[in-house]
Amino acid sequence: MLGIEVKNRIQQLNPWITDPNRASRFIDKFLPKKYVSRIVDKTALTPDRALLIVGPRQSGKSTLAWYLLRPFFPDILFLNMEELLLRIGFSSPIEFIEHVRQDYPFVKAIFLDEVQHMDEAGLFVKGVVDARLGTPILVTGSSSYHLASRTRESLAGRAIRRRLLPFSLAETLSDAAPANPAAEQRLCSKMLAHQLVFGSYPAVFLTPRQQEKVSLLNDLVEALILRDASDLFKIKRIDGFRKLLPLLAGQIGNLFNGSELASICNLDVGTVNAYLEILEETHIISRTRPFAGGKRREITGSPKVFFLDNGIRNQLLNAFSEDLELRTDKGQLLENWVFTEIQKVLPLQSAVKHWRSKAGAEVDFIIDHAGKVFALEVKYAALKQPKLTRSARSFIDAYHPTQFVVVNMALEDNTSVKDTPVHFITPCSLPKWFSSIFEPSL
């Protein structure tokens, strides 16, 4: 039997149910005055199926959820599972299902927010889906570990999973709707400069003043470290964890050396690897594995570490200079930004890797998608002619990729090498290139 305290709290969280005439006022509180459309907006909600939205804190998961739920309002049942009272009241899905059937049989959609705080989030969502209440179930969470990894088997065929990262360049450009190509180019250059330094978290991107951007990033890093990493994952050596973060931030795009980092942080290698897994689960970093095509001359062991937002990376180093031409890390910033843009559109079944040979040849990113291989080289340089590096030619000779792309700051051109199409594009053309290879999968 569900306690009266839990029932009262549910009514407090869902005032539109008892006061439907004022429902529009309530939903306005959940949606910002300025809503930026996201790539996953087109995802349909299906009865008796869950939509899982995972991603870092403050990436817009709840905003997206309320946007998708607008057609069902006010007949929505909302539960914020960050609240201890609700987690205790719904320790198993049985009590929740009985409560819905008895007290809220009229609801048309169910929204479970912040489910990473539940010990058995996957089993709970599975139970709700299997109860066949006749409603779509929308679920959000900031930790892949609690929401995704534990649910892959139990939610197979029962859920659609989407990852929501901070704004992509395509999303911000689409929202701005420039009037003509010249205006688009100017606006894109401005947005790129912002995203290289301050990143793309919605609150940071939409705040006009630099001082506020830095303050928001400071607060966000503390929330990610203290709330997600420390509280959720119970990290014991928080001092070593804090020391590890700026070291990783300074080495983006380099081959990962766990032993070296462990020594500097006074940790063992196993602990460093465990911390990297936590950082990946909470969407702070991501690792690229080596592309292994079966050639003996490849290096197949060491991954590379990238941050999923440039602003978070720069906050850890207190590096917010907007004069990019004078920054010694501008190449790293552009490479990390390209990686984040790939991650924002990469289909779940695809992978991004890097390639490096024992002779020193390397290609920044190798995208393995739909049985095809796409290679990207990133250069913070204003190229004047379509000339490939020796590394690029070595990769083309060995693997004949479907396309080879050189992202640079000026040149737009097309050529080919041994029947492999080679495209020289600027960062502003990257969204269109993504659409050309990923659109059917999005």
Question: What is the share of helical residues?
Answer: 40-55%
Report Rg.
23 Å
Total beta strand runs: 13
Mean pLDDT: 90
- Strand arrangement within the widest β-sheet reads 7-6-8-9-10-11-13-12
Largest sheet: 8 strands, mixed
Tell me the structural class.
alpha/beta
Tally of structural domains? 2
The 3D shape can be described as: globular
The total of helices stands at 19
Q: Span from first to last CA? A: 43 Å
Binned strand content? 15-25%
Oligomer: single chain
Uncertain segments: none
Short description:
This protein is of the alpha/beta class.
Description:
This protein is α/β, with parallel strands linked by helices and 442 residues long. It is built from 19 helices and 13 strands. It has helices spanning 4-13, 15-18, 23-30, 61-69, 84-89, 93-103, 121-130, 144-147, 169-176, 181-198, 202-206, 210-233, 238-249, 258-265, 269-281, 310-317, 330-345, 390-399, 430-438; strands at 50-54, 76-80, 109-113, 137-141, 159-163, 285-290, 304-307, 351-356, 362-369, 372-378, 403-407, 413-417, 420-425. The chain has an eight-stranded mixed β-sheet, sandwiched between helices. Strands 2-3-4-1-5 form a five-stranded parallel β-sheet, with helices on both faces.
